[in-house]
Structure formats: structure tokens, C-alpha cells
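Exercise 7.
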Amino acid sequence: MKDFKRLSDTIYTRKSVRAYSKSPAEILENGADLMEVFGIQPLVDSIKVKVKILRKAEVRNNRSNYCIAFYSEEKPLHLENIGFIGQQIELELQSMGLGTCWWGMKQPRKKYKNRDGLYCVITMTAGHPKNAETRVYPDGFDRKAAGDIIVGDTVPDRLIEAVRIAPSAVNLQPWLIEKIDNKYNFYIRPSKNIMEKMLGKMRNIDIGIAMAHLFIQAKADGLDVSFGFEGKNTEQYKYIAGIVAG
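Solution. The predicted structure, written as C-alpha cells, is:
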């Protein structure tokens, strides 16, 4: 049975790793199918996805021995789906003592940019961290206050806190959450400046990462989880998807 409690604990200690040792990591060295090994739950089942482990020479400017490449077909919510899948893999690896880091600009070399008709959305470096790379909750997390990521009369709770400390590109946290009964609706903020516009698809991937944190915390708390895609935009924010946890 999947140990969601171990993964939820990792939410509160994880840290992006940018310096790696040369020690081989068995699960990565063997080119394992990480989706299958970890029993990863996609956000959208109907979107075709492949997760492949590439070696250092197969990715431009790679500082680690391994790089995880996430391939997908282009469909609505495919970016959020990759973030949702990738963050589960990140937490699995970090819970094993390995290090990881999302890399929006690091792409495979031309030969590996496409796989079985799918394109590489994003990569993640992985391997044994060179130094001890964890942090202490809550002081180790530089994040927005809970009140800055909620919509309307939503009251922050344990699941929203797991979202609050999720990683995002340049720590901009583009998500907003609205809780209605036991459904958590996710919205994306409009781009406010040049930096956010430059991030482009990364902001949608970030929403998927945040949703993965809520999903894992809900499962760790013994809640039944389902996904909903029926929602409306507000005057200010674009609706992405929802998670029912109860």
C-alpha cells in the first residue's frame, strides 16, 4: 500500500537540490519506469504521458548524473497534469533521501526532445545531494501568507497549508484556492509583470504541483479524493480544476 504519510511528511522538509554527488542512485541508474514503480496518479487519465530517465550527456547543461524528462501530448490541462505527476515523483525520490530540482529551461538534446509522438514539457534533475538538503517547517519556507492564496470566505486548513508551501517557478505561487464544502477549486492569477509573462507554461505546471500537495495531504489524512473540472472563471482569476476531499 502506498505510504502517503511518508510523502506528506516530505512536503514539510523537501528542498530543491542544485548540487549533486557522483554516487549512482540505483532506482535512477536502472532506468526504472517511475510512474509504475511509485504508482503515480495522474490528474487527467486521458492524457498520454511518458516519464524517462536521461543521462547527463543527453541533456544540455545538466549538473547531475540523471535528469527526469516529462513527455506529454498537447491537450487541455496537460501542463497541470505534468506538474501533478512530477511533484509526486519528486516527493517519492526526496522521501528516499535523493535530491531533485524542477528545471523549466533545461531541455534534452535534439535526439531526445520527442518520444513516441510526445514532446518534452519539462525536466527535473535528480541524484544524491552533495550536501544535506532539507529544511525545517515553518521557518525554512519563504512563502506567501495563507490569506494571500485563498478566495472569498475560504478558511485556511491543513490541506491548504500543504499547498501554501509548494514550490513554484521563482517562488511566485500563481495559485488561488476556494473551498466550497469539501471541494477545493484552483485558480490561476493573471500575469502581473514581465517576469510572470516570461514564465509562460511554468505557471500552469506550478498549479499542478500545488494540486499534488493537496492530493497527497488529503490521502495521508485518510480522505477520499476525486477530481472535478467543472468550474467558472471569476472576474479576476481563471479556473483550472478542483479536488474533492472528504
